[in-house]
Amino acid sequence: MALIRLLQRKLDGAIVFREPTSDHVPAYAILSHTWGQEEVTLQDIEAGADRSKTASKAGWAKIQFCADQAAADGLQYFWVDTCCIDKKNAVELGAAINSMFRWYQNAARCYVYLSDVFKAGNRANSERAWDEAFKTSRWFTRGWTLQELIAPREVDFFSVEGQRLGSKLLLAAEIHEVTGIPESALRGDALSTFSIKQQRSWAERRTTTIEEDGVYCLIGICGVAMVLNYGEGREHALRRLEKEIDTLYKGADFEQYAVRLNLRSFPEAAQFVARERELSKMHELLHGHSSRAAVVLHGMGGIGKTQLAVEYIRRHKEKHTAIFWLNANDEDSLRLSYRGIAQQVLQCHPSTSVLSSADLDGDLDQVVSAVKAWLDLLGNACWLMVYDNYDNPRITNNSDRSTVNIRQYLPESDQGSIVITTRSARVTQGQRIHIQKLTALEDGLKILANTSRRDSIENALVSELDGLPLALSTAGAYLEHVTTSFAEYLRLYEASWLKLQRTSPTLSSYEDRPLYTTWQVTFDQIQEQNAASARLLKLWAYFDKQDVWFGLLRHACIGDDESIRKLTEDELSYNEAVRLLCEYGLAHPEPSPSQGSRSIGYGVHSCVHSWTISVLNGEWDDGLARLALTCVASEVPSRNVDEWWLLQQRLLQHVAKHRHFIANGKMGVDGLEWAMHSLGDLYADQGRLAEAEAMYDRALQGKEEALGAKHTSTLSTVNNLGNLYADQGRLAEAEAMYDRALQG
Question: According to the UniProt entry, where is the signal peptide (predicted)?
């Protein structure tokens, strides 16, 4: 970086140059503006004897403004491009242009002086009368001001009167609207996280007086250095810039390893939404390292791992010499993917010695070895390999031949970049990033709007689909070509889940994974590894989707199901079973909203829960339903138990599930009158008296039929009904119940 020449205002008001040493550059302010008539030059400042002549120039007002504002901010030094560079010296000019991005980046403050924005305006009653003038300011149309906006940390905008309008952060939304630059870039996110194409797009609508400057103004933003050659023309300058960018990311000899991107080998990607944090993390882990970099994207099926990998490639493809996509679903698919890579490489480099002798129609293991040898060549370090759908990994001591050992398909040298997508949290061949549901409602709204091509999306449907990209895309594809309303779709979703999914159009971006089958493969793998885990998932259909814990399930040990008895015999067995569900993304730990000191429960995604009900338990299993009700009713605490209120709160959502089953006639409660009484107690304790009365009535009816009217258990329910009526002020009915209980 060239040494910066600063301005300093002395005590007598004189403005002079200060040329600091390279090891001590003082804090300074920097000016950003658009050039006009009569700018003050370096020669004007050096000829300081005739200050009145210099001060009479129109450009002097900007220098004076910068000096005053710097002093107000406690800064003695400042920099203005019109007079701090000797533009008559071509060497200095070239060095300055190559250093300017960092000069702005290192400034303590940047002042943007908008010569066409008046703060007063002509709307006396408006606090932001200058808004329109700000958005149409010439400053936003000039090429060089792009880096002056992006590079500094602190940017303040000022009107022509020198009045502060706001900071870059405060005005980020307005600046994004005018320039198209993402707000994250304005907030200071690293430029390397944005694609080269995206960075260049920010300058497309900007102009420069000299045509080559339209390219040179991107030097700093793209992070390269170039010799200036005014007169070469814009296109020639652009080709040189592109070569410098390629060299920066891919090395000087990148062309001998460059392979054209084969889009046919990539899955089709839907319009991408959100995941900016994950994309930034991927870039941080994959770029700027001298050794092998690998990332594992893991999460449940349908969560968008493949889409994320495709989007990462779309943004950063310029930073790799070659990008290859492999299907890691099984070993045969991996071998065929390697043969495709060999064909791609040979098309671009037919004389490549390590590949030219390989028989692509012969032994595919030899083809794999040949491709790996090419990837391991010294200097071939900028490739990216994506191993997609590595969902059946071979874990230690697992001899199942259907599993895949990915290690033998990874290049051996310590170079290049690797991305693996998998449903299993056990894959450890890289830095792991857990891909979870989209938490922002607006992200779900965008996906549904993009796929359905409708406006005014209803929040209720988006909330039900709970941030699962596959479910949102499936709903959008269905709604695109029918007149069904969002409310009607939600009704169908709840009433006829499986039929709705089967009649939905196939998604090109998920063509082999419709929503109703996407978790079946995972379930089959889980069942092979631990039958208790699979049985737990089936049982989960008869609980609420959230907050299932061991204390709740331990009451299932009384049943006849051997897998469930094994699951609930102790907490370690339960942890082993639920951990496997979590490793495959079908369940997740979640703190209970009212857990107090009690154990944390687990939850499943709402769409997975719908699948367990409609597909995994295709036919109603009354035995499992009654077992779940037994668990819930047995866990209801009495008032003399510590934190009884909090435990009852945790149970309410599960009780509501069973109340719905009973009301709809799905579940018989013969022999479970005690459970109805217990649920009545819970509702009564929680002050939900109407629900309590309904449960007590069911309990009383069943007990009278099974035990008789004078059995002590029957009379206990009668007494509780009396208490309930009394609490409601229904005293005559309460008296009748108490009389009956007393007589009994």
Answer: none
pLDDT of res. 310: 94
First and final C-alpha spacing in the chain: 98
Residue 109, strand partner residues: 29
- DSSP assignment, residue 482? S
Rounded to whole angstroms, how far apart are CA atoms 59 and 82?
9
d(CA 397, CA 472): 39
Taking residues 307-326, report their average pLDDT.
Answer: 93
pLDDT for 598 equals 65
pTM: 0.81
Whether 586 and 519 have beta carbons less than 8 Å apart is answered as yes
CA atoms of 713 and 677, how far apart (whole Å) = 10
The DSSP annotation for 637-703 comes to: PPTTSTTHHHHHHHHHHHHHHHHHHHHTT-S--TT-HHHHHHHHHHHHHTT-HHHHHHHHHHHHHHH
| Higher local confidence (pLDDT), 577 or 53 | 577
Q: Which one is predicted more confidently, 665 or 386?
A: 386
- More confident of the two residues 625 and 507: 625
The pair of three-digit structure tokens given for residue 709, joined into one six-digit string = 């009217």
Asked if the model's pLDDT at residue 595 lies above 80, the reply is no
**CA–CA separation, 552 vs 635, rounded Å?**
6
Q: What percent of the chain has pLDDT over 90?
A: 69
Tokens read off for 654: 């599960």
Q: Kindly state the tokens that stand for 61.
A: 């007002």
CA distance 60 to 75: 19
Nearest-angstrom CA–CA distance, 138 and 33: 10
Which residue's entry shows tokens 């009564």?
Answer: 684
Residue found by looking up tokens 């791609």 in the block? 344
Using a 10 angstrom Cβ sphere, with 0-12 exposed, 13-18 middle and 19 or more buried, the burial of residue 519 is buried
- What is the crossing angle of helices 673-685 and 712-727, to 10°? 20
Q: How far is CA 661 from CA 379, 500, 634, in A?
A: 65, 21, 18
* Residue 324, strand partner residues: 385
Q: Measured between alpha carbons, how far is 237 from 260 in angstroms, rounded to an integer?
A: 23
As a whole number of angstroms, the distance between CA 608 and CA 570 comes to: 26
DSSP state of 546: S
CB distance 301 to 585 below 8 Å = yes
DSSP 554-622: GGGGGSS-HHHHHHHSSHHHHHHHHHHHHHTTS-EEE--TT-TTSPPEEE--HHHHHHIIIIIT-S--H
Q: Is the pLDDT of residue 424 over 80?
A: yes
- Collapsing DSSP states into helix, strand and coil, what is residue 173? helix
Query: Considering only 51-60, 342-351, 569-578, which range has the smallest mean pLDDT?
Result: 51-60
SS3 (DSSP) at 298: strand
- Residue 529 token pair: 């590894």
What CA–CA distance (Å, rounded) separates 173 from 345? 45
491-497 contacts: CB < 8 A, separation 24 or more? 493/461, 493/464, 493/610, 494/464, 497/610, 497/611, 497/613, 497/614
Whether the per-residue pLDDT at 262 is higher than 60: the answer is: yes
- Are the beta carbons of 187 and 154 closer than 8 angstroms? no
Contact assessment for residue 567 and residue 577, using Cβ atoms and an 8 Å cutoff: yes
Determine the 3-state secondary structure of 459 from DSSP: helix
Residue indicated by tokens 């339903």: 625
Residue 143 has a pLDDT of 96
Does residue 155 contact residue 168 with C-beta atoms inside 8 Å? yes
Residue 119, pLDDT above cutoff 90: no
Kindly report the average pLDDT of the chain as a whole number. Answer: 90
